[in-house]
Write a structure and sequence with these properties.
Strand content: over 45%
Largest sheet: 10 strands, antiparallel
Bound molecules: beta-D-fructofuranose
Number of helices: 1
Structural class: mainly beta
Helix content: under 10%
Oligomer: single chain
Number of strands: 31
Distance between the termini: 35 Å
Length: 494
Amino acid sequence: MTSKKLQRARDFEKKYSPYVAEELPKFHVTGGIGWINDPNGFAPYKGEYHLFYQYYPYDTKWGPMHWGHVKTTDFMRWERLPAALAPDMDYDKDGCFSGGAVEMPDGRHLLMYTGVRNVRRKNGKIDSFQTQCIAIGDGVNYEKYEGNPVIRSEDIPENGSLHDFRDPKIWREDGMYYMVVGNRTPDTSGSILYYRSEDAIHWEFVNKLASCHNQYGKMWECPDFFPLDGKHVLLTSPQEMNAVGVEFHPGNANVAIIGTFDKEIHHLLRDNVQAIDYGLDFYAPQTLETYDGRRVMIGWMQNWETVGSHLPDQQFMGQMTIPRELSIRNGRLCQNPVREIENYRSVKIAYQNVMMTGENSLQGINGRFIDMTVTIRPGNEASMYRWFKINVARDGEHCTSIRFKPATNIIRIDRTQSGLPCDIVNVREFPVFAGNGELKLRLIMDRYSLEVFVNDGEQAATSVIYTPLEAKSISFSCDGTVLMDVEKYDIIVD
Ligand code: FRU
């Protein structure tokens, strides 16, 4: 039965989201109206891929969390479905927080999420109790399980926080359900708890898969855990991170732990810890395994540090990244846009061996809905160039730039002039593994975003921009000389 709260959200989105359609990105997921944050329940279901998200339809700010819903067959075109969950029960009255989804053996669709119930104490402070709940449905309508929560405050392992216990990611393997979930420990940082169940209702806590020990931020939110290329990967989004060089930035960051899963003790032994995305706007990613065996990740293309930033009359807030295929190369997590984007390429413009000095633009190289790859190498054997820059979304007033310095191997993204009327973080630097001044950058641009993939996906850097669409020039500048190849396609998604 559809509750009043859920029906209200569905009526609201039916009435208002069509008016916003024209303003939306073309191939990046948004809520259609209102606010979205984390991707939820990103999983295959009955031959398609479903994606839910943290959702508050009534404002462009975070509010009591619902789950919005879309689905796709190719990660580029998304069909909007009615809101799936509303905070309409006592145990989730203050929010249906993040979680996962899985297809059940009998064909039903199981959602697992964190129910939040706030209790005001006598001193006025609020305690938020977080428990794990399930809802079962048919791909459009979901019934919350009458025995919710399936993991209650009393079931949390000893010394685990009752207030920071959230974001279950569920999967099925060899006839069992498994789940990882974030929990705060007595040292005030986080750990990832590993559970298993035969029926998704009765859960057994198995072990702590990994613990933060105050090293990478504090509370670890939104975990995901999966095998990849002979290793296991844990993705998590730490709160209150301290910067570490140019690898991890402060605040809400994102971390990939790559290692070996010890199946005897159910613990992840670390080989390497790295940032997942090095840009300004990326948080809370989730992955799925496609029907043809690819591990695909989607992230919230925003960050809690920058949520105050949008255009004054904008009626939606929050987008997802382009889904990305993951792999491990040289022990590091690599990512590239899903290959399906290639089906939407049109109007190829390519140049090879362009000798570049000073500032230049190239005939036909411009646009705001593009997939462009730029490869550079030093143009002068005797002296290395000092820096090279790509300037996109340009007009007389606006410009977003990506600059590379071969002496330090640091890339700097600057979106100071990208149409944002707010003084938020606009610049980010990160190290790359380029050698001898050679570098390959792939840029994916949609109406409000720039995603940069470095050296065939060794690194990604994601940033939201709000530059007016008329600013579509692209130029290249260089202090010194480089030889450059450029291949640009327009991306057309009707
Ligand atoms: C991460 C997060 C999650 C929580 C959700 C609430 O961005 O804080 O931990 O479930 O957002 O919307």
